[in-house]
Amino acid sequence: MSREKVHWLLVYLVPYLTIGALSKGAGFLLLPLGGTAGVYVGFTSTAPYFTSDFKLSLVLFYLIAILLFWAGLKFRGKFWGKAINALGVYLWCAVGIVGFGPQ
């Protein structure tokens, strides 16, 4: 296995498995669910605690996640570029989990 593939596995798989293990398995489901459905719920829910300030903060953190992902792609030749890329993805998923609200 090449060094490049090992780096990608380290920055994506190790944190995913660590988060999943520390959350007693909940992270295995919550991260992908937050990254997909959490985005939709965060912007379309009409519950009273989904205020415009809350939605604006979601937008801000999603923009930060996109910028981190893009910066990581730009510098993907180095390990720290891959780590920044993975940080953007994990931030996107974490903000998506917050987007579900306090259910």
Question: What keyword list fits this structure?
Answer:
mainly alpha, about 0% strand, about 100 residues
User: What level of helicity do the residues show?
Assistant: over 70%
Distance between the termini: 43 Å
Care to count the β-strands?
A: 0
Q: What is the mean pLDDT?
A: 94
- Our estimate of the beta-strand percent is under 5%
Element order: H for helix, E for strand:
HHHH
Structural shape: flat
Number of helices, where a helix is a run of at least 4 consecutive DSSP H or I residues = 4
Largest sheet: none
Which structural class best describes the helix and strand composition? Answer: mainly alpha
Q: What would you report as the Rg, rounded to the nearest angstrom? A: 15 Å
Write up what this structure looks like:
81% of the residues lie in helices and 0% in strands. It contains 4 helices and no strands. The protein has helices spanning 3-22, 26-44, 52-74, 79-99. Helix 1 packs parallel to helix 4. It is flat and about 50 Å long.
Please write out the topology.
Blueprint: H1 3-22, H2 26-44, H3 52-74, H4 79-99
Helix pairs in contact: 1-2, 1-4, 2-4, 3-4
Short description:
The protein is mostly helical and 103 residues long. 81% of the residues lie in helices and 0% in strands. It contains 4 helices and no strands.
